[in-house]
Amino acid sequence: MGLHTNGLSLEIVGREITGRPVPGKPRRPAGPYLLGLPALLLSCLLLVPIGVTVVAAFRTPGGFGLGNFAVMTDQGALRAVGNSLLWVLVAFGIVVVGFFLALLSYRLPAVTTFLQPALVIPFAVSVLVSGATFRLLFDPTPERGTVTAVWTRLFGSSPVWLGPGLFWLVLVSAFGWTWLGYVVSLFRAGLDAIPDDVTRTLTAEGVRGWRRLRALEIPLLRPIAGVVTLTVVIAAVRVFDLILIVVPGSMQRSADVLGLNWWRETTSGDDTGRTAALGVVLFAIVAAVALIGVRGLRRRRWAMPVTVVRPDPSLGRPKPRRSVRRFGWLIGLAVALVWIFPAVVLVITALHSPAEAGVRGWWSASGLGFSSFAAAANVGLFRALLSTLIIASAATAVLLVIAVPTAYLVAWGGLPVHVGRTVMAVFVVLAVTPVQMYAAPLRDAIDAAGLAGSRIALALVHAAAGLPFAVLLLRSAFASAPPALVSEALQGPVRQSAVLATVQRTYRPALIAVAVLEFALVWNDFIVGFLISGPGTTPLSLVLWGEARQFSASSGPVAAAAVVASIVPAVLMLSFWRTVVRGLTTGSRP
């Protein structure tokens, strides 16, 4: 067939079409997939050891089977499982208390004036510091323990708070002191994000009190409730260092959780199959509980069973009367003073000499000075500070460089739907995986590579452990950007950078939240350094725990080390807390 046009002659040779039609598929550029390669390599630091642990758990002398899981019939393991489930109930209780405290501060905004800083400080410090603080408060001798002294003055005699059964009160108090500020802040951020027109509509219809709670606050806060529940429950199931520092050694087996039971098995025997089975059981419990909060990581909207009317603009959240504001200030101040009191006890104890802190309470005026800080410095405190700063900074930098492009790839990188879902599922699994699932194989691999005691190796492990949560949070922030803006940016010649520039306002708070939380978590870490680190790294928390092993004789240096260890994360959290909360709730707010 020939074609002549504008002096140009074309000859087209055709042939008969045979065979069935084949549907066309758009070609996907391979470039964006390279964004996820660093995350894949870093995740292998966890995935490979996890695989080794799973294989070891099911490998028996006769092949593969469930023989190693017979360890769960041991009395100690059964007690540990029961205690782990008890911690789950504690976590749910903290979530409920935190919700109603946030609701109180929402109804009486003046409460937040004094309460917010007091709630943030405990969340900034490590669980190890919280445990040391509450052990000081509940010291069994009335000459040193605040609670014991008050109880003895009121009732004449005092129970042994760190004795059988009662040590649970100390543990739960320390855990709640650490996490309640996080719960209250996120719920309060969700309440503040409720649109004013919705509030005015309910007010115009006369919906108040419990009806308003059921119709408005609870449905709209379900996404944030999922995030909060997921975080706190996993922290409760993973509790480890709190028990080590609070409960006396003679009673620690009564307080054992699965993580501690796993550690005792690894240090007392060489049956790797049994210890691997304990790690798999711990992971199964954490993963099952985590299903409660996974949906909270997704953006969703909830319908309310109310009729929308055109409200009076003067309605809504009226400015409270002066008497109500004063009442709120009094409540906030009272709760803040109670909440900050443990931190005050810790600081004043640190300002006593080691001898005075060992025999007298914080209220004693004798022995004041900085000799406890000098004693803490003599055991390597400041060297540990430098080591921890290097590890935390390196881990945070590596995490940010890898997490941002990976989160963008999952959110807007054009991945096929099934690939994106698979990637998200893997990150969710890794986010809830306990350290015990990869600690032993990873430690052996680091030792075999001659990197035992390497700060860089420990920083990479921390970055790998923090990567799943960072990607989930940043992906949620990316996905919450207006699709129209993203579509417009994708039409340009520099598509990937244009999308990042377009949605920077959306993901910037999440980026700051990831950076602050990663730095603080690595700074406060105990379990990763304890289970994986060699003697050359000397993280700060290990120095603190080493001193706390002789708690009665070294309470002054322990308090001094705890104060020094808490300054950096406390200042960091107080400086960026509002942005951190915004970043944590991006994509989950109503």
CATH topology: MetI-like fold
The biggest beta sheet is recorded as: 2 strands, antiparallel
| Helicity, as a percent range | 55-70%
Which strand order does the major sheet show?
1-2
Our count of domains comes out at 1
What is the C-alpha radius of gyration, as a whole number of Å? 28 Å
Number of helices: 25
Whole-Å distance between the termini?
A: 64 Å
What structural class do the secondary elements suggest? mainly alpha
| 3D shape | globular
CATH superfamily: MetI-like
- The strand count comes to 4
| Overall average pLDDT | 81
CATH class: Mainly Alpha
Q: H/E element string?
A: EEHEEHHHHHHHHHHHHHHHHHHHHHHHH
List segments where confidence is low: pLDDT < 50 over at least 5 consecutive residues: 296-316
Describe the model:
With 590 residues, the chain is an all-alpha fold. The protein has a single domain, classed as MetI-like fold, CATH 1.10.3720.10. It has helices at 37-58, 75-107, 112-124, 127-137, 146-155, 167-192, 196-204, 209-220, 222-237, 241-246, 258-268, 272-294, 322-350, 354-359, 371-378, 381-412, 417-432, 439-448, 455-479, 483-490, 495-502, 504-524, 527-532, 540-548, 555-585, and strands spanning 2-5, 8-11, 59-60, 63-64. The chain has a two-stranded antiparallel ribbon with strand order 1-2. A two-stranded antiparallel sheet has the order 3-4. Helix 1 (37-58) crosses helix 12 and helix 16 (381-412) packs parallel to helix 19 (455-479). The chain is globular and about 110 Å long. The N and C termini lie far apart (64 Å). The model is unreliable at 296-316 (pLDDT under 50).
